[in-house]
Predict the 3D structure of the following.
Amino acid sequence: MTAQALEVTDLRHRYGERESLRGLGFSVAPADLFALLGPNGGGKTTLFRIISTLIAPTSGTLEVFGVDVVARPAEARRSMGVVFQSPAVDPWLTVIENLRHHGYLYGMSGAALNRGIEHALERFGLSPRASDRAGALSGGLRRRVELAKALLPEPPLLVLDEPSSGLDPTARRELLQELRRLRDDAGTTIVLTTHMIEEAAVADRVGILHEGRLVAIGTPRDLVDAIGADILTIDPAGNAAALQQKVKERFDLDVTIVGATLRIERKRAHEFVPKLVEAFGNDIASVSVGKPTLEDVFTHHTGTRLSS
Amino acid sequence: MMLAVYSLWRRDVVRFLRQPSRIVGALLTPVIFWFVIGSGVGTSFEGGFLSYYFPGSLALIVLFTAIFSTISIVEDRQEGFLQGVLASPAPRFAIVLGKALGSTTLAVLNGVLFLLLIPFSGLTPGAGNLLAAVACVALLALALSGLGILIAWPLKSTQGFHAVMNVALVPMWLLSGALFPATGASPWVRTLMRFNPLTPAVEILRAVLTNTPAANLASAAGSVALFALVTLSIATLLVSRPSR
């Protein structure tokens, strides 16, 4: 059996009283695009820092292509490209100097390095800015330098922490396209953390991380299908809790309060709407029915909403 | 390994060339102190203080440069640059050595600039002795850069660095023979001076710059080398350890 690109077993991390990872276990197959979806503070960044060998887990193991990151960090680092949320570029060096420096750190040199740099500059549209200092670039451009850097040694695994935070929608789309191209053309395994549904939705597989636990994992389609119902969202005209109680008693079903709205999972929800409105029309400002999205998957498993 | 050392060294030099004021500042204070205090005490000090104080000022310049230059580690951590280096497969010793050599280069540069003032000090070392002084400056700078790295490594802000500077590093320099000889000092000061890792370096600088033959030059040089080995080793251990 060939090794998984990433194999996580009962991973825990505790810092003082704070337990940020509570026994994670999952794996990512080679050439998969895997998204770790979760709110800020859910443990994503801790996991990212353990994968990139910057911090050690309290217990459990994490292997990159069969190499334990704690026991053999140097070897694990060699097969990974890491894209940090705050770009790890030197503002006083030019774009090309930053790339060259990164290549050296990964043992690249000579013609191979020069070719790699040229290719990276072109691929990310950085050629016109190659001689500018990184500190003079916009946030989006700096992010591209960071990505170009990480891909320079052509790592089989690319890990990215919130790669599209601070990017405008166009730049975000381009980034996701680039990542998919990388997976298809080079067979690169991609693991990214995100708190954005749109980003997770394009992944081959998604893991939902909530309060240090993996609450669901699968393809976006499987996760959505697993709910097996429509989502009914009620915007109450008055007190949400009071309406929740009334609906529960009258129809005998699960009603959860999410933010300021009531949420019901139900098959053929459109047939239920007339009954609901007839019974509590005065208490309801609006009702909507929708097919579940990944957002609903998150709410289904955690009882909270991902985005505000 | 060598590529990583070279790259980190080169980065420090390039950064220096783009903002030289940060490091040249480490030169000015000791030069002013040397000139004002040296001329002020003047001949109240036997043999003239301007010349006695010269080797000690050179040591202070090396100390300031090494410390000011390694302080950038704290900023590198805040700005995010450092995490990129740490996530790379570069050997941890190469990371320490690259940084230390960068800082050493700047310290040697500042030291040489100060040595250009030697005609004003009343000292008349020969060319060979001047070269020996530069070599000693380089070795001492390597040791102090290692010390700077291991101080800067756990710090969250540069403010902490200034505290360490005032509480530990400046006293270390004061008690190295830079400002006064051990002979007339009270016993406890003499004891501290004997075990101060900076003392042998100041002894060497004084011996070669004043043309005074010293018997223990080789062992003093060995002490400075050992000082460098110890600080660089501890720094490497510190850098190798993943944080919690």
